[in-house]
Design brief:
With 444 residues, the protein is α+β, with helices and mostly antiparallel strands. Helices cover 18% and strands 33% of the residues. The chain has eight helices and 25 strands. Strands 7, 8, 9, 11, 12, 13, 15 and 16 form an eight-stranded antiparallel β-sheet that branches. It has a six-stranded mixed β-sheet with strand order 2-3-1-4-5-6, sandwiched between helices.
Length: 444
Amino acid sequence: MSTTTTEELSATTLLRFATAGSVDDGKSTLVGRLLHDSKSVLADQLEAVEHASRSRGQDTPDLALLTDGLRAEREQGITIDVAYRYFATPRRRFILADTPGHVQYTRNMVTGASTAELTVILVDARNGVVEQTRRHAAIAALLRVPHAVLAVNKMDLVEYRESVFAAIAEEFTAYATDLGVPEVTAIPISALAGDNVVEASANMDWYGGPTVLEHLETVPVSHDLSHCHARLPVQYVIRPQTADHPDYRGYAGQIAAGSFRVGESVTVLPSGRTSKISGIDVLGRPVAVAWTAQSVTVLLEDDIDISRGDLIVPAKDAPATTQDIEATVCHVADQPLTVGHRVLLKHGTRTVKAIVKDIPSRLTLDDLSLHPHPGQLVANDIGRVKVRTAERLPVDSYADSRRTGSFILIDPADGTTLTAGMVGESFASPEPVRDETEDDGWDF
C-alpha cells in the first residue's frame, strides 16, 4: 500500500474522474494497472486477484479483477455497475468511477460521470472511434465535464505505430471539439503491458507527452465554488423541542454551491419568503460562514414555513421559479419517454408531478445533427425535452450549476429512473434541425 502520510495528503488536491469506453477496450485493466503500478493495492487484494486469475487458467494477474467486483462481472468478463475506487499519490488524492462500456449500461456511465472533473475515454487502437466512443464523448460534454483524456489503448497490438495513434486522436479531438469539450489530451497506452499508464513507455519514443497518471496528477482542478450562486436545498427540518432547546428550528442540508454567512438576507423558494440567517451550525458547533459541500444547519430570524424540498438562496441572487422547464436529457430507461408521459420530476430535494409536453429534437451522434420531433426517446437517446411541472421550481441553468441545474424524471408507478436532465442550453450547437422531408436515414 502507498506510504503517503496524512500530512502529505492534507496538502494535496482531490480529483474525481471517470473511465468510459466500448466493451473490451480495457477500462478495468487500465484502472487495475493504475492501482497496481501506483502501489495503491493491498497485498491481500493482489493475492486474491492472482488466485482468481490462476483459477481461470491465466499465467499473470488479471488486473481488471481489481475493479470488477460483482460475481456476474467476473463470470462474463465485463463491467456492469459503476465501481468506485479511492487511491492517492503524494501529489493528489483520487476518486475513480470505473463505468460500463455496454450500451445497455449507459445509464451507469451517466451516474459515474455526473460528479467527475475529468473523463478518461478509452479507444481500442485496432477499432478506432466507434459509436459508443461518440456516445460517451457526448455524455461527457452534456454533463460539462471540464477535462477529457483520450486513452488509445492496446497500442502493442498495432505495433506501437504513431500513425495509428495520430489518426484516432485527430478524429476524436475534432468530434469532441464540435461537442464543446473544452480540453482533450490524447495518450497512447497499453494497459495490459503498462505502457504510458504510470511509467513512460520505451516502445513509443515518438510520444513526448505525459503518462496517464502524470496527467491525472497535474491537470488543473478548481474546487473554489465560493463565487458561484449560493444554494442550500433543505433536506430536513430539525426541531428537538427539548428542555435545552425548546424553540430550536434549524434547516439542515448540504450546501450545493457558494457560501452563506450569519446576518445574510436570504429568500426561501418557491414561497419567496425572506429572512436573515441568525446562526449556522456545522457538526454541532456554531460558525460564522459555511461554504460548498459542507453539511450545515441554518437558523433564521423569522419563523416561516420551510420544509424538505425548499431552497434557501441569497435574497440578492435568487433564481426565477418556473413550471416550464426545457432541458437536454439522456434517456436511461428501457421504456420509451413519450410526449404526454406523466412523470415525477426530482430537483434537488424536491419531487413534484410533471408531464412531458414536447420532445423538440433528438441528437444524432454520427454528425451531431438534430432530428426534429421524434415523438419519443428510447434507451440511451440524447435529446431536448419540454416539461410542465405541477408546482413552480427554482431551477438554475446547468451551465451555471451542475447541482441545481439538473434533475431526473421518475416513473410514478414503480420509482424507476427514466431520464437525466440538464436545464438550459445543450452542450453544443449542432447543425440546424432538418425538415423531415429531407431526412433519409438518421437512425443509429
